[in-house]
# Entry
Amino acid sequence: MNLRRIALIARRDFLGYVRTLGFWITVLGPVIGIILGMLGISIANSAEPTRYVSLLDETGRYEQLIIEDWTADQKAIAIDTMTPFVKLVTSPEQFKIFETTLENEGVDEAKDYFASINPSLAERLPNTGSNLRIVEIDGLKAGDINRYLSGDIQPEFRGEAVKLSGVMRITDSEDGPKAELYTSVPSFKGLERDTNDILRRDAEDKYFGETGITRDGFWNTRENAPRVTTINPFKTATPDGGGQTVTMADRVPYFLAAGLSFFLWLTVFSGAYMLLMSMVEEKVNKALEMMLASTRFTEILFGKLLGVAALTIASMMPWIIMGSLGIFVAIKLGDPALAGALAGSVTPGMIVTFVSFFILGYLFYGSLFMALGSLAESMQDAQTLVTPVLLMLTMCLFVVTTGISNPDSGLIKAASFIPVSAPFAILMRLPNDPPLWEIWLSAFILLASTILVIWAASKLFRHGILSGGLKGLKTLISFGRIKSS
# Structure
């Protein structure tokens, strides 16, 4: 084999796809999708006007409770959405002040503080919940509700005159408290959920009060009731007797293995399918016959495998970058226990195993798809020929899903020694620390199978090009007598 000719064929296939518009749409599709998604969310948030609502509590019992409930909800949303972003772009001292302001003063004040230290980024803060604002009006009366809703009377909110979108009125009736939301906007639901929550709690308090049981006491009892604790006796115990409890951090390695397995499956499938299409296309337009005038079958085979491998990695690069950034951000900003488990899962052994089985799996399936593509006369023929292989690849997805819940099952262990599923099954077994000899045995079986498939593919490849496809059982039986170049 001539390495220069292999490199030229690989370069030809790679550049042939890279220069097409479809390739760049595929490569930039995830990035474009994320940008459009963020832009759409930003436009939707900016298009949604700020709504103002006031409370008219004629009972005198619920107004403050509703405001506190709404404030707590907004603070919780802000902590989940704003805090990671602010932590990423501010110094530790500034972030501490931001957290203190958010906790003691509220969401709007925390946003104002962030805007004072970084005005340009303040506009890009993630959405912190609803655009609803509560306006407290002293002396609000039921007879004035229509005038407030029509805009004839505009109360002040943070020094600015605003028009109310709704007024939540609460009164006492014979059947108990009654809440009515006055609004001229049919879709407006201001404070409806928070008011319902407070009224529900009040009804629960009255019910429990008749039995001598408090609502908080009941729910605290439920919350503090004994629960089953899962113990892993092989984990290192701490002096206080803990350390062996199974937590979500213990499951992180399995989710990481599943993510790598699925990425491997998607990459192998994409690369193999591109090889198939390339083979059929060049066979139909007689390009392969012209190439055979100056190159060998094996050189074309390896050249195409190398070129499409580079193309596949290039097309998956946005996913690789986003996945790496996601892991980095999760480690830096996530829960310390989960972040530590994630960082501990990305070991040199897992990286080496992933890369090794990625290469072997790609060569195995790529050679198989190329061989079948060389036998096809059209895309319809190719789709018929590769259907069994596609079914095998689809079945491998069940290996991944099974491995998440039962990584030590006999099915996963057996699948790690079957060539078609070994690349995916062995990754799912890594969090359980399988014996090293089993990993080596799986790699050896896959390597031997890959060599066998490449050898058979060269025969099929030569026959498919020279004989024009698969014709009859007699031709299929004669493959063993065809010498590979």
Summary: The first helix runs from residue 3 to 18. Residues 96 and 160 are 30 Å apart (CA to CA). The chain is about 65% helix and 5% strand.
